[in-house]
Amino acid sequence: MTTPLPAALLWDFDGTTVDSEGSWERAEMRWLAHLGGPRPGVAMEREPGASLDGTIDWIHEAAGVPVTDRAAVRRALCELAIEEYRADGPVVLPGVRELMTQAELAGVPNLLVSANETWLLRRVISGWQRQPYLHLVGEDMVEHSKPAPDLYLEAARLLGVDPARCIAFEDSRTGATAAVAAGCFTVGVTGQETAAVEGVAMRVDGLSGVGLDEVVARWRAWSAVS
After folding, report:
1. How do residues 119-169 score in pLDDT, each as one tens digit?
2. What is residue 47's predicted lDDT score, i.e. its pLDDT?
3. Sign of torsion, CA 7 11 210 196?
4. Please, are residues 210 and 103 in contact by the beta-carbon 8 Å criterion?
5. One-character DSSP codes across 91-158
6. CA–CA separation, 154 vs 60, rounded Å?
7. Residue 86, by phi and psi: left (phi above 0), alpha (psi -120 to 50) or beta?
8. Sign of the dihedral defined by the CA atoms of residues 183, 152, 166, 24, in that order
9. What whole-number distance in Å separates Cα of residue 221 and Cα of residue 226?
10. Which one-letter DSSP state was computed for residue 67?
């Protein structure tokens, strides 16, 4: 009997695949400065993994400025983020490329599942020498972004598989909540943010040295009792 493999590896982008949280933070602060800066006494607490609309609402609330043209603000903030991404040259986090390559060699596709918009993702990864993703799934493709399960359900739909056959990698509470709710085997990367999410099946401090065989073995054990 052939040993079963997962249908796909589903990758969050910011903070899981690339070290880019700083790029977003600077883009957000630039937009906040454009609005005149925060109101006095406003607590500046940023939620990692928040949706684009959630981020916009947070910035505008901090500035005390209503959102009058959400589409224009979304575009402007994304353009700032792209500038920051390119200035940084987003660094792929240790172990990610190796795990993606192992999956490809085993015939398991990699999909990017992100709360960013798809056009932004395409532009950011356009400079990569090699494109590892079968599909890009961005928040503009679904009704609700993370922490709702829609993005992961859409990824499974594109593949025509049960989400339980997919392994999702997430570094934020928001993202891990989405992946678990969709029914994916969820790997919490770096642990701290995902530790409070019930249903995360595997936790690692990082992906350096984490091999496909190890992750798949844990997925098989989880599948057997789920």
Report:
1. 989 988 887 767 789 899 999 999 999 999 999 999 999 999 999 999 999
2. 65
3. negative
4. no
5. EEPTTHHHHHHHHHHTT--EEEE-SS-HHHHHHHHTT-SS--EEEEE-GGGSSS-TTSSHHHHHHHHH
6. 30
7. alpha
8. negative
9. 9
10. -
**% of the chain surpassing 90 pLDDT:** 67
What's residue 24's pLDDT?
Answer: 86
Helix axes 96-105 and 212-225, enclosed angle (nearest 10): 70
Phi, psi of 196 (to 5 degrees): -85, -5
What's residue 131's pLDDT? 76
Question: What angle do the packed helices 70-88 and 118-125 form, to 10 degrees?
Answer: 20
> How is domain 8-19+91-225 classified at the CATH fold level?
Rossmann fold (3.40.50)
- Can you give the pLDDT at residue 94? 94
- Tokens representing 169 are 């990698």
Distances (CA, A) of 160 to 118, 138, 187: 20, 18, 22
Count Cα neighbours of 143 within 13 Å in the Cβ-side half-sphere: 2
How much is the CA Rg of the chain, to the nearest whole Å?
18
| Token pair recorded at residue 222 | 């989880």
Low-confidence ranges of the chain (pLDDT < 50): 1
> Exposed/middle/buried for 6, CB within 10 Å: 0-12, 13-18, 19+?
buried
